[in-house]
Specification:
Length: about 240
Amino acid sequence: MRLLTLMAVITLILTAPLGLLDLGLWFKASSNMAKFLRDDLGFRVDLIEDAFKAVYETLVISLFGVSSGTLIAYILAPLASPMIVGSRLATLSRLLANAVRSIPAIFWAILFVILVGPGPRAGALALALYTAAYLAKFFYEILESVDREHVNSLKVMGLSGLTLASAMYAHTRRQVVSSILFMLEYNIRTAAIIGFVGAGGVGYYVSYYMSLLDYPAAITFVAATMLFVIAIDALSYLARTRV
């Protein structure tokens, strides 16, 4: 209850500088919503095939980001764990992962659009880099959750470095798989956004049709994305329950 009370107080304090207490704002929003529902809400049946092609492109970008990011994080995370390597190397590895993760994925997408040009390649590379940094954090926290007695027994057996990390990964397989599935869900949503800066995927088409004020077309692509995300979430949940 104390936490909820604190959050309520903070919310009330911040409504004023955000201008959310302005009744005129809400009257305008209501009017715009009524106009949108009356005039603009609809679908472009002729674009449904294009929408699902865009969703497929988004899936390819997301899967590449997860698969390549997992490979990088699998190696980077042990280098960030003082249980496996020296504290100095672990600190440097964590700083690297934190530096990459502190920059939003959309900015990495802008960088790769500059480097390799607009399109899905830029989005895939941006998500690969961002996913690697995020999973590295998840993985080294998972590795450090392993009981120290178990780690010491593995070291007594002569395991060290990546072989030690592999044994520790095997001990925490459920958490590792759960983290990968989480990043897949996250990447699919992110891939739909980075398209706004030219990095491919469904976001590119939403941005394009929004610039033309063709809201039914934009809604068609958004609806296809929503159906896809719901399906991925359901499959991810089923996968987690079977790990």
